[in-house]
Amino acid sequence: MMYSEKVLDHFSNPRNVGEIEDADGVGEIGNAKCGDIMKMYLKIDKGIITDAKFKTFGCGAAVATSSMATELIKGKSIDDALKLTNQAVVEALDGLPAVKIHCSVLAEQAVRSALSDYYTRQGIDPLPIVGEIKEPEE
Amino acid sequence: MEKRFIYADNAATTAVSEEVLNAMLPHFRTAYGNASSIYKLGRDAQRDIEDAREKVAKALGADPKEIFFTSCGSESDNWAIKGMAEVQEKRGKKHIITSVFEHHAVLHTCEYLEKKGFEVTYIKVNDKGLIDPEDVRNAIREDTALVTIMYANNEIGTIQPIDEIAAICKEKKVIFHTDAVQAVGHVEIDVHKQGIDMLSLSGHKIHAQKGIGVLYIRKGLTLPNLIHGGGQERNKRAGTENVPAIVGLGVAIEAATKNIAEKAAIITPRRNRLIDGMLKLPYTRLNGDRDKRLPGNLNISFEGIEGESLLLMLDLNGICASSGSACTSGSLDPSHVLLSIGLKHEVAHGSLRLSIEEDVTDEDVDYILEVIPKVVERLRSMSPVWEKMMKGEKYA
Ligand SMILES: Cc1ncc(COP(=O)(O)O)c(C=O)c1O
User: Fold this and answer.
1) Chain A within 8 Å of B158 (Cβ-Cβ)?
2) Considering only CB atoms, which chain B residues are within 8 Å of A99?
3) N or C: which terminus of chain B has fewer CB atoms within 10 Å of its end residue's CB?
4) Cα of B212 to ligand 1 centre, how many Å?
5) pLDDT exceeds 80 at position B90
C-alpha cells in the first residue's frame, strides 16, 4: 500500500498531538472495535480556533489525517472549520489510498464533534449549526 | 542506538538464497530448453526438473511420482480441495471439514464450495490456537469428502496435532490434506509415516522464488486436472514447466530441511528472549501456545495501540514486521486468526507478528527490544484508548 510522503511525514512527526487541559470543546469519534478513535481538543477565542490538539488510536492514515485536520483549522474561524471537508484533508496530504478515505471522514467528523461540544457548553443547540455527527459504521 | 535493518517477516516471504539463485541462473540464458523438447537442451531441462522433484520427495518422505509442481501455495490448496471435492461429489460425499483459522487460500476455497452446494464444518481452535483432534473425529460423517487442516498457522505459528488428525482420518477412511506452507523447513515432515494424503507447500517461504509451489498427492489418489493443456506434470497440470523456479525450489527445500533441529536451536532462544522482553511491557499478551509453535514466530498484542501504526513506526526504525490489525487486512475486521483464539477486536488490532530466522542475531534482538518499548510507549501516549484504559474507563 502506498502512502504519500506527506502522509508519512504527518504520521512520523504528527503536529499538535496531546490534550488541552482547559479546552473549550472536546470531540471524540470512532470506536476501538473498528480500529480508529480520534479525540480532538479545541481552544476557541472570539470565534477563532486558537489551538487544536488531538489523540488518535488508529492506523497511519488516522494519525496523519488527525494531524493535518488540526493544522488546517488552527487559527481559522469556526465558520471556516465547519467548512473543512474530508476531501480537503485528503488533498492536503497529497492523497490517501482508497481503503483509507474513511480516516479522513473521521478527522472531519472529529472537528465537527469538538465544535458541537463547544456550542453545547455555550448553551447553544449545536445541531442547526454543526449538523449530525456521523459515527463510522461498525 | 544505531539504526539497523532487520527483516523479521519471513512468514510473509523470504529472500532467495544465494545457493538457490546460483542454481537457477543457468536456466535463464544457457540451459533454457523446454523440458518437452527431444534434443539435449530439452532433455537436460527434463532431467533437472526430475532432480528437483526427487529433492522435494526426499524432503517430505514421499515418492517423486507423488510430487506435482504448481505455481504457488494457493494453487496447491485450490487444486487439492476443489479437485477432491469434485471426485467425492460423484460418490455422494459433499461435506468438508476444515478449521476456522486456515489461510484464505483454504477458507475462500471452502466458501466457494459452499456456494456449489457443499457443506463445510469449521473446527474451532482453543485459546492457545490449537485444534483438538477429537473435534475432527466428532465432525466426520458418512458423507465427509475431505479434511483439510493447516500444519502450522501463518499468524500465530501454532503447530497442529497433524499426526493425530491424520490417524483419525485414516481410521475413518477420510482423505486428509494439510496446508504446510508455513511448516516446511521448520518442522520435520514425513508424509508417508504421518499418513498425510495431500500436502501443499510454497517456495517463497523457504528461500526459493515467489510463484512456485508443490502439491504432494499420495499414490492411489487421483485429482482432476486444474489446468488442461499439454502433458506436463504427468498429464495433471499443464503449462511449460518453470524450470528455473523448479530447480531453485529443489535446492531450497533440500537446504531448508537438512538442519531443522540446528536452526531451531539457534532461533528459539532468540525468539523467546523477544517474547519475554515484550511481555515485560504492561497490557501485552502472547497469542498462541508458547511451545507448540514455529521456532521463529512470535505474535504479541499491545493493548491501546493499533497495529499498522506500530508497523510504520518499526519500519522507520528499520524493522520489517507484520500485524493482524484491520488496517493491514484491508477490511474493518482484524485478523480472523486472532479473533478465532478469542481476542477482542480492540486487542487484535494491536497485534504484532515477527517471524525470524538465523540471520536475526542476538544484537538484532537487543535492538528490537530497545525499539519496541519506545514505539509502543509513544503510540500509547497519543492513544485515547490507552488514556481511557489508564483511567479505568470503558473504551470499546
Ligand atoms: C498457510 C499459508 N497457506 C498458503 C499460502 C499461500 O502461498 P502462496 O503465496 O505461494 O500462494 C500462504 C502464504 O501466505 C500461507 O501462509
Assistant:
1) no
2) 330
3) N
4) 11
5) yes
- Contact residues on chain A for B334, CB-CB shorter than 8 A: 35
| Inter-chain CB proximity B387 and A55 less than 8 Å | yes
Q: How many angstroms separate the CA atoms of B298 and B226, rounded? A: 36
pLDDT of B158-174, one tens digit each?
999 999 999 999 999 99
Which ligand 1 atom minimizes the distance to the CA of B76?
A: 11
Of the listed ranges A35-39, B139-143, B354-358, the least confidently predicted one is A35-39
Report the amino acid identity of residue A60: G
Beta strands (DSSP E) in chain B are: 6-7, 67-70, 95-99, 119-123, 144-148, 176-179, 198-202, 213-217, 284-286, 297-302, 319-320, 351-355
Cell of B247: 530447480
Those residues whose C-beta lies under 8 Å from the C-beta of residue B36, and which sit 6 or more positions away, are: B42, B46, B230, B231, B232, B240
Reduce the DSSP state of residue B273 to 3 states and report it.
Answer: helix
Buried b / exposed e along B25-45 (16+ C-beta atoms within 10 A): eebeeeeebebeeeeeeeebb
Predicted pLDDT at B334: 86
Report yes or no: B326 at the A interface, CB cutoff 8 Å. yes
B73 CB under 6 A from ligand 1?
Answer: yes
Classify residue A100 by its DSSP letter: G
Compare CB distances from A57 to B313, B316, B384 and report the shortest one's residue.
Answer: B384
Q: Please name the residues in contact with A47: beta carbons below 8 A apart, sequence gap of 6 or more.
A: A77, A78, A79
Q: Is the pLDDT of residue A126 over 90?
A: yes
What CA–CA distances, in Å, run from B348 to A35, B96, B301, B382?
9, 28, 7, 19
Residues on chain B touching A38 (C-beta within 8 angstroms): 384
Nearest-angstrom CA–CA distance, B24 and B232: 20
Q: Which run of H or E residues covers position A50?
A: strand A48-57
The pTM assigned to this predicted structure is: 0.95
In whole angstroms, what is the distance from residue B391 CA to residue B274 CA? Answer: 29
CB B270 within 8 A of CB B369: no
Residue B130 to residue B158: CA distance in whole angstroms: 7
pLDDT at res. B327: 64
Atom 15 in ligand 1: residue holding the nearest Cα:
B181
Burial of B23 per CB tally in 10 Å (0-12, 13-18, 19+): buried
Among residues B120, B173, B117, which one has the least CA distance to residue B148? B120
Local structure of A76: helix, strand or coil: coil
Has B327 been annotated as catalytic? yes
* Nearest residue to B33 (alpha-carbon basis) of B42, B25, B21: B42
Q: Best of B312, B314, B375, B386 to disrupt the A interface by mutation (most A CBs within 10 Å)?
A: B312
| pLDDT above 80 (res A53) | yes
